[in-house]
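Milestone M4 deliverable, item 7.
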Amino acid sequence: TNFSRTTTPQSETISQTDAILALDKPYGRQNYSGSARIGAARFEKNGDKLNSQNYDVSAGFSSEIASNWLVNLNASASENLNPNQNNPTGERVEKNVVSQRDGGLSIQYGVLGRWAMIGTASMSRLKYSLASQETLNREQGSQGLRLTYSPSDLLVFGLGGTHTQSDYKNLV
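Output delivered:
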């Protein structure tokens, strides 16, 4: 294989070891969920540069409030090695850790009827550790509102809009 994705191909043996834990617990009108994956990546030939720890964690909460409201909250974080083919050509075999943080909120009015109004808000942050890719670091937020109509359990029509703003602070 051409692990480095360059004109001078080199092979590599990669070992990834993970520990995973997950939870999905309904409790009355609430639901709690979460998951965690912690791992270690080991490289045979490029271990001095690329050996790393990585993780993905997420948590969520959902609850029905009163008779016709539904609230969902979620958050996640991850830190993983960027695939080397996504690094700049001269830095394919350099350690580039990608960190991502996300959070979201959704509020729905109209849980049991045919009509529902759903408002959403989310925030996301993405960061690369390699200096040459810091222009890709971004912060993003979005807000949305939509109206849905469900004539049956299998069919939903919706109309709405979402506003998203992305900020690349290091973009030249």
